[in-house]
Amino acid sequence: MAPTIADQLFNTDSSALTDFVINQGNGVKGLSEMGLKALPKAYIQPLEERMWASATQVIPEESIPIIDMTNWEDPKVAKAVCDAAEKWGFFQIVNHAVPIQVLENVQDATHRFFGLPAEEKKKYSKEHSASSNVRFGTSFSPKAEKALEWKDFLSLFFVSEEEACAFWPPVCREQVLEYMRSSEVVIKQLFQILMNGLNVKEIDETTKSLLMGSVRTNLNYYPICPNPELTVGVGRHSDVSSLTILLQDEIGGLYVKGNQGGNWIHVPPIKGSLVINVGDALQILSNGRYRSVEHRVIANGSKNRISVPIFVNPRPGDIIGPLPQVLENGEKPIYKQVLYSDYVRHFFRKAHDGKKTVEFAEI
User: Fold this and answer.
1) What's the whole-model pTM score?
2) pLDDT tens across 54-83, in order?
3) DSSP letter (8 states) at residue 142
4) Which family does it belong to (predicted)?
Protein backbone atom coordinates (compact mmCIF):
# COMPACT_ATOMS: atom_id res chain seq x y z
CA MET A 1 0.00 0.00 0.00
CA ALA A 2 1.26 3.48 -0.86
CA PRO A 3 2.15 5.63 2.14
CA THR A 4 -0.20 8.51 2.94
CA ILE A 5 0.96 12.14 3.08
CA ALA A 6 0.84 11.85 6.88
CA ASP A 7 3.08 8.75 6.75
CA GLN A 8 5.66 10.66 4.72
CA LEU A 9 5.47 13.78 6.90
CA PHE A 10 5.79 12.00 10.26
CA ASN A 11 8.68 9.84 9.06
CA THR A 12 10.70 12.74 7.66
CA ASP A 13 9.92 15.48 10.20
CA SER A 14 10.11 14.45 13.86
CA SER A 15 9.10 17.94 15.00
CA ALA A 16 5.83 17.61 13.04
CA LEU A 17 5.15 14.33 14.85
CA THR A 18 5.92 15.86 18.26
CA ASP A 19 3.73 18.85 17.49
CA PHE A 20 0.77 16.73 16.37
CA VAL A 21 0.97 14.08 19.10
CA ILE A 22 2.10 16.11 22.11
CA ASN A 23 1.68 19.86 21.54
CA GLN A 24 -1.71 19.67 19.80
CA GLY A 25 -2.99 17.02 22.21
CA ASN A 26 -3.85 14.41 19.56
CA GLY A 27 -1.84 11.65 21.22
CA VAL A 28 -1.30 8.31 19.49
CA LYS A 29 -5.09 8.04 19.28
CA GLY A 30 -4.94 10.88 16.75
CA LEU A 31 -2.25 9.05 14.77
CA SER A 32 -4.29 5.84 14.84
CA GLU A 33 -7.38 7.61 13.49
CA MET A 34 -5.45 9.08 10.53
CA GLY A 35 -5.29 5.64 8.91
CA LEU A 36 -1.50 5.48 8.74
CA LYS A 37 -0.24 2.60 6.61
CA ALA A 38 3.01 2.25 8.55
CA LEU A 39 4.20 2.90 12.07
CA PRO A 40 6.16 6.18 12.34
CA LYS A 41 9.87 5.55 12.88
CA ALA A 42 9.80 7.24 16.30
CA TYR A 43 7.72 4.31 17.62
CA ILE A 44 9.83 1.47 16.22
CA GLN A 45 11.40 -0.34 19.16
CA PRO A 46 14.82 -2.00 19.05
CA LEU A 47 14.59 -5.71 18.28
CA GLU A 48 15.31 -6.80 21.85
CA GLU A 49 12.26 -4.85 23.13
CA ARG A 50 9.81 -6.30 20.62
CA MET A 51 7.68 -9.08 22.06
CA TRP A 52 7.74 -11.27 18.98
CA ALA A 53 11.18 -10.47 17.55
CA SER A 54 13.53 -11.13 20.47
CA ALA A 55 14.35 -14.43 22.17
CA THR A 56 11.10 -14.05 24.09
CA GLN A 57 9.21 -17.18 24.97
CA VAL A 58 5.51 -16.86 25.71
CA ILE A 59 4.07 -19.72 27.78
CA PRO A 60 0.43 -20.05 26.69
CA GLU A 61 -0.59 -22.74 29.17
CA GLU A 62 0.78 -21.00 32.26
CA SER A 63 -1.28 -18.53 34.28
CA ILE A 64 -0.80 -16.26 37.28
CA PRO A 65 -2.89 -17.32 40.33
CA ILE A 66 -6.60 -16.48 40.45
CA ILE A 67 -7.80 -15.99 44.05
CA ASP A 68 -11.42 -15.94 45.26
CA MET A 69 -11.75 -13.22 47.93
CA THR A 70 -15.24 -14.24 49.13
CA ASN A 71 -13.91 -15.46 52.50
CA TRP A 72 -10.85 -13.24 52.67
CA GLU A 73 -10.20 -14.03 56.36
CA ASP A 74 -9.90 -17.76 55.60
CA PRO A 75 -6.27 -18.86 56.27
CA LYS A 76 -6.25 -20.64 52.88
CA VAL A 77 -7.00 -17.34 51.11
CA ALA A 78 -4.29 -15.57 53.14
CA LYS A 79 -1.78 -18.28 52.23
CA ALA A 80 -2.73 -18.04 48.53
CA VAL A 81 -2.25 -14.24 48.54
CA CYS A 82 1.13 -14.36 50.32
CA ASP A 83 2.35 -17.26 48.14
CA ALA A 84 1.34 -15.37 44.98
CA ALA A 85 3.11 -12.19 46.18
CA GLU A 86 6.28 -14.19 46.95
CA LYS A 87 6.43 -16.45 43.89
CA TRP A 88 4.69 -14.48 41.14
CA GLY A 89 4.36 -10.85 42.22
CA PHE A 90 1.04 -10.89 40.30
CA PHE A 91 -2.38 -12.46 40.86
CA GLN A 92 -6.00 -11.88 39.89
CA ILE A 93 -8.81 -11.56 42.42
CA VAL A 94 -12.47 -12.43 41.87
CA ASN A 95 -15.49 -12.00 44.18
CA HIS A 96 -13.92 -8.92 45.74
CA ALA A 97 -15.89 -6.04 47.22
CA VAL A 98 -15.87 -3.74 44.16
CA PRO A 99 -19.25 -3.83 42.36
CA ILE A 100 -19.22 -4.75 38.65
CA GLN A 101 -21.24 -1.60 37.89
CA VAL A 102 -18.46 0.58 39.35
CA LEU A 103 -15.90 -1.17 37.12
CA GLU A 104 -18.07 -0.78 34.02
CA ASN A 105 -18.73 2.89 34.82
CA VAL A 106 -15.04 3.75 35.07
CA GLN A 107 -14.34 1.91 31.80
CA ASP A 108 -17.10 3.93 30.08
CA ALA A 109 -15.69 7.12 31.59
CA THR A 110 -12.22 6.25 30.25
CA HIS A 111 -13.62 5.92 26.72
CA ARG A 112 -15.47 9.22 27.21
CA PHE A 113 -12.33 11.09 28.22
CA PHE A 114 -10.26 9.80 25.31
CA GLY A 115 -13.20 10.50 22.98
CA LEU A 116 -12.95 14.23 23.78
CA PRO A 117 -11.60 16.58 21.10
CA ALA A 118 -7.83 17.13 21.23
CA GLU A 119 -8.31 20.76 22.35
CA GLU A 120 -10.22 19.53 25.43
CA LYS A 121 -7.69 16.85 26.38
CA LYS A 122 -4.83 19.30 25.83
CA LYS A 123 -6.18 21.41 28.74
CA TYR A 124 -4.89 18.64 31.05
CA SER A 125 -1.41 18.32 29.52
CA LYS A 126 1.67 19.12 31.60
CA GLU A 127 1.99 22.55 29.98
CA HIS A 128 -1.68 23.54 30.41
CA SER A 129 -3.13 21.66 33.40
CA ALA A 130 -4.40 23.85 36.24
CA SER A 131 -3.02 21.28 38.71
CA SER A 132 0.28 19.38 38.76
CA ASN A 133 -1.75 16.41 40.06
CA VAL A 134 -3.66 16.06 36.77
CA ARG A 135 -1.78 15.17 33.61
CA PHE A 136 -2.75 14.02 30.14
CA GLY A 137 0.20 12.61 28.24
CA THR A 138 1.48 10.07 25.78
CA SER A 139 4.12 7.31 25.84
CA PHE A 140 6.02 7.12 29.18
CA SER A 141 8.79 9.70 29.28
CA PRO A 142 9.13 11.04 25.71
CA LYS A 143 12.19 13.20 26.43
CA ALA A 144 14.13 10.21 27.83
CA GLU A 145 13.00 7.52 25.38
CA LYS A 146 14.87 6.50 22.24
CA ALA A 147 11.67 4.89 20.93
CA LEU A 148 8.17 5.97 21.95
CA GLU A 149 5.44 3.73 23.36
CA TRP A 150 2.01 3.41 21.71
CA LYS A 151 -0.15 4.66 24.60
CA ASP A 152 -2.00 7.77 25.80
CA PHE A 153 -2.86 8.30 29.46
CA LEU A 154 -4.56 10.55 31.99
CA SER A 155 -2.85 10.52 35.40
CA LEU A 156 -4.83 11.61 38.48
CA PHE A 157 -2.99 11.98 41.80
CA PHE A 158 -5.52 12.08 44.64
CA VAL A 159 -5.15 14.88 47.19
CA SER A 160 -8.75 15.41 48.34
CA GLU A 161 -12.31 15.18 47.02
CA GLU A 162 -12.36 19.02 46.87
CA GLU A 163 -9.21 19.15 44.74
CA ALA A 164 -10.56 16.40 42.46
CA CYS A 165 -13.85 18.26 42.03
CA ALA A 166 -11.96 21.42 41.12
CA PHE A 167 -9.41 20.01 38.69
CA TRP A 168 -10.25 16.50 37.41
CA PRO A 169 -12.03 16.25 34.03
CA PRO A 170 -15.82 16.27 34.60
CA VAL A 171 -16.39 13.44 32.07
CA CYS A 172 -14.61 10.91 34.30
CA ARG A 173 -14.21 12.50 37.75
CA GLU A 174 -17.10 10.88 39.63
CA GLN A 175 -16.52 7.44 38.11
CA VAL A 176 -12.80 7.43 39.05
CA LEU A 177 -13.54 8.63 42.59
CA GLU A 178 -16.17 5.91 43.03
CA TYR A 179 -13.73 3.27 41.70
CA MET A 180 -11.10 4.47 44.19
CA ARG A 181 -13.55 4.54 47.12
CA SER A 182 -14.91 1.09 46.29
CA SER A 183 -11.40 -0.38 46.01
CA GLU A 184 -10.34 0.80 49.48
CA VAL A 185 -11.91 -2.20 51.21
CA VAL A 186 -10.07 -4.81 49.18
CA ILE A 187 -6.81 -2.82 49.33
CA LYS A 188 -6.97 -2.83 53.14
CA GLN A 189 -7.81 -6.55 53.16
CA LEU A 190 -4.81 -7.35 50.96
CA PHE A 191 -2.42 -5.25 53.06
CA GLN A 192 -3.70 -6.89 56.25
CA ILE A 193 -3.01 -10.33 54.77
CA LEU A 194 0.39 -9.36 53.36
CA MET A 195 1.54 -7.66 56.58
CA ASN A 196 0.47 -10.69 58.62
CA GLY A 197 2.69 -12.75 56.34
CA LEU A 198 5.62 -10.49 57.36
CA ASN A 199 4.85 -10.79 61.09
CA VAL A 200 3.47 -7.24 61.17
CA LYS A 201 0.47 -7.90 63.41
CA GLU A 202 -0.84 -4.36 63.61
CA ILE A 203 -0.79 -1.70 60.90
CA ASP A 204 -0.13 1.53 62.84
CA GLU A 205 -0.32 5.00 61.26
CA THR A 206 3.36 5.00 60.24
CA THR A 207 3.07 1.62 58.48
CA LYS A 208 -0.26 2.61 56.92
CA SER A 209 1.41 5.69 55.40
CA LEU A 210 4.26 3.57 53.99
CA LEU A 211 1.77 1.17 52.41
CA MET A 212 -1.04 3.45 51.28
CA GLY A 213 -0.16 7.05 52.09
CA SER A 214 -0.88 8.26 48.55
CA VAL A 215 -2.94 7.07 45.58
CA ARG A 216 -2.68 7.73 41.85
CA THR A 217 -5.14 6.45 39.24
CA ASN A 218 -4.28 6.31 35.54
CA LEU A 219 -6.66 5.97 32.62
CA ASN A 220 -4.69 4.25 29.83
CA TYR A 221 -5.66 4.14 26.16
CA TYR A 222 -3.92 1.87 23.63
CA PRO A 223 -5.36 2.63 20.19
CA ILE A 224 -5.27 0.37 17.14
CA CYS A 225 -1.71 0.34 15.84
CA PRO A 226 -0.28 -0.17 12.34
CA ASN A 227 2.57 -2.73 12.59
CA PRO A 228 1.93 -3.58 16.27
CA GLU A 229 4.76 -6.13 16.17
CA LEU A 230 7.30 -3.28 15.78
CA THR A 231 6.38 -1.36 18.94
CA VAL A 232 5.04 -1.72 22.48
CA GLY A 233 2.03 -0.42 24.39
CA VAL A 234 4.18 -0.25 27.52
CA GLY A 235 7.81 -1.37 27.73
CA ARG A 236 9.28 -3.77 30.29
CA HIS A 237 9.09 -2.29 33.79
CA SER A 238 8.06 -2.90 37.36
CA ASP A 239 5.79 -0.47 39.22
CA VAL A 240 7.12 1.87 41.91
CA SER A 241 3.95 1.46 44.01
CA SER A 242 3.32 -0.65 47.11
CA LEU A 243 0.45 -2.40 45.32
CA THR A 244 -1.18 -1.82 41.94
CA ILE A 245 -4.85 -2.67 41.41
CA LEU A 246 -5.52 -2.98 37.68
CA LEU A 247 -8.82 -3.08 35.84
CA GLN A 248 -8.33 -4.27 32.27
CA ASP A 249 -10.95 -4.55 29.55
CA GLU A 250 -11.74 -7.69 27.58
CA ILE A 251 -9.06 -7.16 24.89
CA GLY A 252 -5.97 -8.53 26.67
CA GLY A 253 -2.33 -7.70 26.02
CA LEU A 254 -0.73 -7.58 29.48
CA TYR A 255 2.26 -9.93 29.89
CA VAL A 256 4.12 -10.77 33.10
CA LYS A 257 7.65 -12.10 33.36
CA GLY A 258 7.57 -15.69 34.57
CA ASN A 259 9.86 -17.43 37.03
CA GLN A 260 11.91 -19.09 34.27
CA GLY A 261 14.22 -16.35 32.99
CA GLY A 262 12.98 -14.95 29.69
CA ASN A 263 9.50 -16.50 29.77
CA TRP A 264 6.42 -14.27 29.54
CA ILE A 265 2.88 -15.13 30.62
CA HIS A 266 -0.29 -13.51 29.30
CA VAL A 267 -2.75 -12.23 31.91
CA PRO A 268 -6.12 -13.18 30.41
CA PRO A 269 -9.01 -10.77 31.03
CA ILE A 270 -11.64 -12.19 33.39
CA LYS A 271 -14.86 -10.19 33.58
CA GLY A 272 -15.22 -8.54 36.96
CA SER A 273 -11.72 -9.46 38.13
CA LEU A 274 -8.93 -7.14 39.27
CA VAL A 275 -5.25 -7.78 38.62
CA ILE A 276 -3.06 -7.17 41.68
CA ASN A 277 0.69 -6.73 41.54
CA VAL A 278 3.40 -6.03 44.07
CA GLY A 279 5.31 -2.80 43.43
CA ASP A 280 8.92 -1.91 44.18
CA ALA A 281 7.98 -0.11 47.44
CA LEU A 282 6.49 -3.31 48.91
CA GLN A 283 9.46 -5.35 47.65
CA ILE A 284 11.74 -2.96 49.56
CA LEU A 285 9.52 -2.87 52.69
CA SER A 286 9.41 -6.70 52.74
CA ASN A 287 13.21 -6.92 52.20
CA GLY A 288 12.65 -8.84 48.97
CA ARG A 289 10.13 -11.36 50.33
CA TYR A 290 7.35 -10.05 48.09
CA ARG A 291 8.39 -9.66 44.45
CA SER A 292 7.81 -6.68 42.19
CA VAL A 293 7.85 -8.27 38.75
CA GLU A 294 8.54 -6.99 35.24
CA HIS A 295 5.53 -6.65 32.98
CA ARG A 296 4.73 -5.15 29.59
CA VAL A 297 1.79 -4.45 27.27
CA ILE A 298 1.77 -5.29 23.57
CA ALA A 299 0.24 -3.06 20.91
CA ASN A 300 -2.87 -4.29 19.09
CA GLY A 301 -3.49 -4.12 15.35
CA SER A 302 -7.26 -4.54 15.38
CA LYS A 303 -8.78 -3.25 18.65
CA ASN A 304 -8.55 -0.24 20.96
CA ARG A 305 -7.67 -1.31 24.53
CA ILE A 306 -8.07 0.50 27.85
CA SER A 307 -6.90 -0.20 31.39
CA VAL A 308 -7.35 1.62 34.69
CA PRO A 309 -4.64 1.02 37.32
CA ILE A 310 -4.79 2.38 40.86
CA PHE A 311 -1.26 2.82 42.20
CA VAL A 312 -1.24 2.63 46.00
CA ASN A 313 1.99 4.19 47.27
CA PRO A 314 3.89 5.60 50.24
CA ARG A 315 3.64 9.37 50.62
CA PRO A 316 6.28 11.29 48.61
CA GLY A 317 7.98 12.43 51.85
CA ASP A 318 8.16 8.94 53.41
CA ILE A 319 11.47 7.15 53.94
CA ILE A 320 11.16 3.55 52.76
CA GLY A 321 13.34 0.61 53.73
CA PRO A 322 12.88 -2.91 55.13
CA LEU A 323 10.29 -2.94 57.95
CA PRO A 324 11.77 -3.53 61.45
CA GLN A 325 9.51 -6.58 62.00
CA VAL A 326 11.00 -8.24 58.92
CA LEU A 327 14.53 -7.82 60.27
CA GLU A 328 13.91 -8.65 63.92
CA ASN A 329 15.03 -12.29 63.56
CA GLY A 330 18.46 -11.18 62.39
CA GLU A 331 17.70 -11.06 58.65
CA LYS A 332 20.19 -8.76 56.91
CA PRO A 333 18.70 -5.77 55.04
CA ILE A 334 19.29 -5.84 51.28
CA TYR A 335 17.87 -2.34 50.76
CA LYS A 336 18.88 0.99 52.29
CA GLN A 337 16.53 3.72 53.54
CA VAL A 338 15.51 5.99 50.65
CA LEU A 339 13.23 8.99 50.29
CA TYR A 340 10.25 7.75 48.26
CA SER A 341 10.05 10.92 46.11
CA ASP A 342 13.72 10.43 45.12
CA TYR A 343 12.95 6.85 44.12
CA VAL A 344 9.98 7.92 41.98
CA ARG A 345 11.99 10.74 40.38
CA HIS A 346 14.67 8.23 39.42
CA PHE A 347 12.00 6.03 37.77
CA PHE A 348 10.53 8.83 35.67
CA ARG A 349 13.79 10.38 34.49
CA LYS A 350 14.64 7.38 32.30
CA ALA A 351 12.93 5.12 29.77
CA HIS A 352 11.36 1.86 30.89
CA ASP A 353 14.22 -0.56 31.59
CA GLY A 354 12.89 -3.68 33.26
CA LYS A 355 13.79 -4.05 36.93
CA LYS A 356 16.71 -1.59 37.03
CA THR A 357 14.91 1.05 39.14
CA VAL A 358 15.11 -1.06 42.31
CA GLU A 359 18.93 -1.00 42.10
CA PHE A 360 18.62 2.61 43.30
CA ALA A 361 17.67 1.27 46.77
CA GLU A 362 20.05 -1.69 46.99
CA ILE A 363 22.81 -1.67 49.62
Assistant:
1) 0.90
2) 555 666 657 889 999 999 989 999 999 999
3) T
4) Belongs to the iron/ascorbate-dependent oxidoreductase family.
